[in-house]
Amino acid sequence: MFDAPWGRRLAGRLEEHVIDSEILRANALGDPAERPLWVYVPPGYDEDPDRRYPAVYVIQGFTGQLDMWRNRSPMRALFPEDVDALFSDGATPRCLVVFVDCWTSIGGSQFVDSPATGRYHSYLCDEVVPWVDARYRTLAAAAHRGIAGKSSGGYGAMITPMLRPDLWGGLATHAGDALFECCYQRDFPPAARLLRDHYAGSMERFLEDFRGRLAFTREGDDVLLNAYAMAACYSADDDGTVHLPFDAATGELVPDVWERWLALDPVRMVPRHAETLRSMRAIYIDAGTRDEYFLDLGAEAFRTALAAIGVMDVYFELFDATHMNIGYRYPIALRYLAERLSPPAP
Fold this sequence. Notes:
Number of strands: 10
């Protein structure tokens, strides 16, 4: 129960940093290379200078930026406050929690390397992780490092360990983007109609208009921006050219482009990364049964794909909710990761 709407004093602390990223410098969107990074340090960290801790990295959904963790929902705690309460109760093994910013000016990065957005997968894995390990007393091994996120962040949490098993031993995905024919393809006909009716069939005209006014003030802004951003992440050429997976005039699939998207669908990635997934210490999957993007179906498909390769030790739950306002689920996943990624008690 949370009854202090103006916040609470943390038993641990949230340390705020800025990383000047070489990897993100000169990205195609011209987005900042300096990025904020927060590290939650649990109670007791200073009292035992020889103790090392697991680390859980938290990434955000589409349009998320780091300071949004301070956006309070009515009658609810902020997630950093929930983190602190979890590690103050004495029942949960304590961890460092790293809050990462991978925002882009088109809404998000999907935590992949793309010539149209930037090398955000490499930024996370090759800059942020070593930076944290060099400055904090982490247990700097994959077996003690996890990643968690919701929606696009849940997508990043699914694919990042598959691509970098040397770094990650656990994941938690809340309604992560998966089963692309359910969560993305349904928006292609509406996107084509919006482009036809308002932008003469041109995504470039939409982007010019969107960037020149207050964001999300016209019908379909969310649908069109999401379609373009995903294409920029999943189907961009080496020169930065972005290919839509549908015909802008009809909404019909463009098969060769759509196949590029499907190759990055977590459900379809599972068989290619079977050995890695079988070695994971923690896999947590959940989603709301009324998710507007049908990500409950994606969650079930991801679980089924894992079972097909022999991964049965999975936390899986579908619960009564939509896609929105499910932050109360995050501490459940964090507790699970903390328990699975912590070394055995002496």
